[in-house]
Amino acid sequence: MERADSTQLKVALFGAGKMGVKHAQAIARIKGARVVAIADLLPPGGELKAALGDGFKAYRDAKTLLAEASPDVVHIVTPPETHFELARLALEHGASVYIEKPFTMRRSEAAELVRLAGQKGLRLCAGHQILYNDCTREAERLLPLIGRVVHIESYFSFRTVRRNITPAGQMTDILPHPVYLLLNFMELAERGAHEPVLAALEVRHEGEVRALVNYGGLTGMLAVTLTGRPVESYLRIIGTNGMLHVDFVRGTVVKLVGPGDNAIAIILNPYMQSAQALWKTTRSFARLFMKKQKSYPGLLELTEAFYASVRGAAPPPLSYGSITSTVALCESINERLGESEAVAEDKAQRELAATEASMPPVNASRRTVVVTGGTGFLGRKVASVLREQGWPVRVLARSIPPYSKRLPGVQYVAAELAEELHPGVLKDAEAVVHCAAETSGGADAHKRNSITATRNVIKAAADASVGKVIHISSIAVIKNGWRVKRPLSESTPLDSGNPGRGPYVWGKAESEALAIEYGAEMGIPVKVLRAGPLVDFKALKAPGRLGREVGPLFVAVGGRRSKISLCDIETAALVIASYLNDYGAAPKILNLVDPASPTREELLKRILDGRPGLRPLWIPYGLISAASLCARALMRIASPGKKPMDIASAFASERYDTSLAGRVIRKAKEDLKPGMPASVREKEARV
Fold this sequence. Notes:
By secondary structure, the chain is α/β, with parallel strands linked by helices. The protein is 41% helix and 20% strand. A 7-stranded mixed beta sheet has the order 8-9-10-7-11-12-13. Strands 16-15-14-17-18-19-24 form a 7-stranded parallel beta sheet, with helices on both faces. Strands 3-2-1-4-5-6 form a 6-stranded parallel beta sheet, sandwiched between helices. β14, α12 (377-388) and β15 (393-397) form a beta-alpha-beta unit.
């Protein structure tokens, strides 16, 4: 539902990524505001166009956009280190600015933006949208009920979302959320603004922060972790007359009002808390589902309040003092994290150098193998096995990983595969193993990072006269067994041009077809390995088709004795190495599934052996199929015109003809024995 206002605001977005889409969706719901321009090095994708329509102009740089489009408001949703310069540029061109968190990296930068905005008569806003969601507002209303506040704890546990980002880098991105929430309620409790002071701080480079923050006469606790589980975000506020527990993940506020210091209260309080948590969580999720939330909770409301202040109808939605205090506190913590990480990286660099000095040299008769996606799950194992086999290995990655995440003896080069590759990245290369692909996001992300990236890799390989290209596809790209009525094999048709299979399968299928066709056009005989569901049996994690872990239970789906098709990453890496050794004789297409795949019961037993606190709960596949049919019917009612999800297909097992895969795997394991030094293996081969 659009929000009405009398003044039309021209809005520009700096950044067209995932957060840019979220902002665009929120702005599109506000009547009286319209996105007229977007600045990004990449053209806007389909999700952004769907949110905004065709009424905007795309630019490749912010300065040109500001000069030509003259927006009233700019939303900055670019990487954190760019925020200050872009915001200053926008203010100088007469635009008010909304900056995603972190607002800036340093307090001095935040203060300069506040000064410049005041000088120009413009407005500023930070991306502190959780302050405007329903549970925060409810907690603010309830705060007087619990008396004088004596303790506040702000807790945030998160996971690292990108493999190549360091823990300190991830902390920089998420830290403002628990900090501004803590400071907001400390200010309300103290009934006035004070300068927050770090009374104590402990950090660990793995991504751990523990801090005591003094604010007026109140001390609060801040705890942020990248390794603690489950993922949570909450405030716990203790007063002289009760307690509030504000859960930002579930969108609930559990309250206990009263001193609770008698026997009856001590007995009843746990039941009261549990009842509130159950009812309010159910209600919150139902509301979220029915509202079909298109942006982060609170983002729409904060943006609307900001626009009202830009029009002069209201003060800024966030005080500038609270913004600069949040930046200052985050800056101090980030500095300590950076120092801790620098010490750890220095140690990792020395250990890496020592390991490399003791490694046997590469085979002088071999040229470099370039591995794309070499920092990912499969790519990292491929790079490791190839180097162990004596190949010179070069990994292409979006950014150079820290020393603590590098493989010894492997060269790393920064390259953006979705853009035209510099000729030097494949210099002196004998082969390319193309493992890189998008694994999340919508169709736009897969088109860019799977399909376009594949085209660029094939072109670069042809330009560099690389004679061997191995394209890693997925076994999910072929048509389903129920459609072909027989076990799936290498001759099963590719299910290309079918977005109904989901963005990942669609992107992989299109990438495979492109690799073969474009490779032939460019004169490169591309070999395709369709990897089955990959697992690492040395550090086993349950594949999605087996089931899901739910609290103390592992809910396993399907028949206990039915086989679940898998491929161990070490087996896959050995097969790839075998392909490179005898490229001409290797099959053009291979469905890489291990014939010795375990039954579901055997696989679950291996998982449970390493998790003594986890218990199995088996659900027949027929029951899931029935539930899936009901869910699809409900989704058709709730979202007509949108293809419903098929939950049952996520757990279905296909039947495969593994005769070719069996022969290739046996040959690879016989020729390339895992763990045997390359020099010994080559001596054996000569004998």
